[in-house]
């Protein structure tokens, strides 16, 4: 192998894209010019020179159209660009040209995982391991896919094998730490995370886990440091912002917490947890008057009705993001003709990118073309059936009155992504609205097992299910816990009041709770019915 090629490979392996490009300026044998262009494409992409990356890859495929290694690299490049169709076609081409290449099978597994979820990808990872049973990278991603599929016990075997082969592999250490944190061993998780060095230590997923682990270990200053570093990398990451605000609040920095959570709480779709954190931070700072407003907003949030589905776009493709931002600006200005023209052009130029189909669907929906939006959302789902696509489809189907279709979409998604708690909660809300209380309870219990028992609205929903199923005692326990977490919420107060009443508890307390709920949400029919029941029982 040519020294220039090997030097470039080594530079890329250690994350030095500029060094790789410098190395590739040296002499390259004629037979390896295609590979050199592919390596230059990788390096240019990492340096965010997207135009140069596209040109280098075009040259590589022109010069070596039958090189499976180049097609494998090209598949990863298209995957990074979120071009699912292009990535899948390239991965298939790589396997056809190099059927014994573990790397070609591995990239196919990754593409399938991105497009259709971890369960669909498992067989592809096993096939890749059949060609390279001791490849640490494949073992780690196979383990990760098993975890995403909820098969945590099965995850242990490939992860242990990977750790035996490379105990300091950053991806392996991260996955081991994730398992430790999930298993209630934050100290072990911290020890594993501390062994991750170099660029791996600053990966967003690693920083997120480190912050959460430090909070579990009651070291909020360290938690704030990790979350703050993550926010510098991803300023729009809401999870990072919540972690950062919580860490600051826990360490006594109420003003810092207020500033950190502001970007979330000023948005129209602010969640109850963030609003309550803001309220508590105001109160801790002595600003009692300011504390009331976010607390009131939290009190008015509902307990998760199926109709309240708000998909949040994640436009992370370098090639389409600027165009999507322009389209969203046109939508905000209600310039639907311009938005449609831009969306049509974007989709024509990026037929394999799901975000292009999604934004075109959004434009059609905003413009009143619901049937057109449905077709575009389904096109996006064919490219990648992820949470954003599912939420868009389900919300639109409900808007169109197609509850059966929405339920089918949700069921298909959960079969692909069985660990998605957002889908569990939407499924529970839809089941509850249809009177299928046991199905609703099953979904909520599954969500609670994954997110923990400190989500007041989830606990209130669970209490409602138990109440409808006749388990008044169980309902009372969940409702009491929900009320302790969020006493100012109408739904929480109402479910606690009615469970106290039906459990034979203090009627005065039950009336007080339901009266408060009525004051907070006077238009809520269910609360009004429970209030009438309580008044009648008091006569």
Oligomer kind = single chain
CATH architecture of the domain at 418-539: Alpha Horseshoe
Quickly count the helices. Answer: 31
What is the overall shape?
A: globular
Q: What level of helicity do the residues show?
A: over 70%
CATH C-level class of the domain at 418-539: Mainly Alpha
Q: Low-confidence stretches at least 5 residues in length (pLDDT < 50)?
A: 303-315
**Main pleated sheet:** none
Folded structure, characterized:
The chain is an all-alpha fold. The protein contains 31 helices and no strands. It has helices at 3-13, 17-23, 33-46, 50-63, 68-80, 84-97, 102-116, 118-131, 136-148, 152-165, 170-182, 186-193, 204-216, 220-233, 238-250, 254-265, 272-284, 288-300, 321-332, 336-349, 354-366, 370-383, 387-399, 403-416, 421-433, 437-451, 456-468, 472-485, 490-502, 507-520, 525-538. Helix 12 (186-193) packs antiparallel against helix 13 (204-216). The radius of gyration is 26 Å and the shape is globular. The model is unreliable at 303-315 (pLDDT under 50).
Short description:
The chain has 539 residues and is mainly alpha-helical.
Topology of helices and strands:
Layout: H1 3-13, H2 17-23, H3 33-46, H4 50-63, H5 68-80, H6 84-97, H7 102-116, H8 118-131, H9 136-148, H10 152-165, H11 170-182, H12 186-193, H13 204-216, H14 220-233, H15 238-250, H16 254-265, H17 272-284, H18 288-300, H19 321-332, H20 336-349, H21 354-366, H22 370-383, H23 387-399, H24 403-416, H25 421-433, H26 437-451, H27 456-468, H28 472-485, H29 490-502, H30 507-520, H31 525-538
Helix pairs in contact: 1-2, 1-3, 2-3, 3-4, 3-5, 5-6, 5-7, 6-7, 7-8, 8-9, 9-10, 10-11, 11-12, 11-13, 12-13, 13-14, 13-15, 14-15, 15-16, 16-17, 17-18, 19-20, 19-21, 20-21, 21-22, 22-23, 23-24, 24-25, 25-26, 26-27, 27-28, 27-29, 28-29, 29-30, 29-31, 30-31
